[in-house]
Give the backbone structure.
Amino acid sequence: MSVTGLPGQGPVRVGIPVADLTAGIFLAQGVLCALIERERSGKGQWVHTSLLEAMVTMLDFQAARWLIDGAIPPQAGNDHPTGIPTGVFKTSDGHINIAASGQTMFRRLCEALGTEPLLKNPLYEKAPERSKNRHALTVELEKPSWARPARNGSSC
């Protein structure tokens, strides 16, 4: 829960039972693998699932940060903690989710929004600079996206 919610808000429970659902999906995959093995070898298999193991898997690099060096990842809200720009952006009639963290995706996003000058701006030119200037970049990207309706967001 420490990674869920807006920064400084305090831990927030996820809106769905992520651990239960994920462990169930992993169990279903295990059963399918066991059935395939039974077809091949004629032998049954022991299938195991774990809520904790499912959540460690789902936390991906967030869990790795803690498991490797004890770092507790902070809350990032709708932003991705390392990939920028990634998050929820205002539009004229709601919000859209943008995930354009790589150089190619960032270039394509700027082209789609008509914000190509951002590509040459030293504050946003490379990923480390975008990370340091996340909030300013969000403001710049919301200017053109605010003029567009959310329903057109998929074309960006």
About this structure: The longest helix spans residues 18-41.
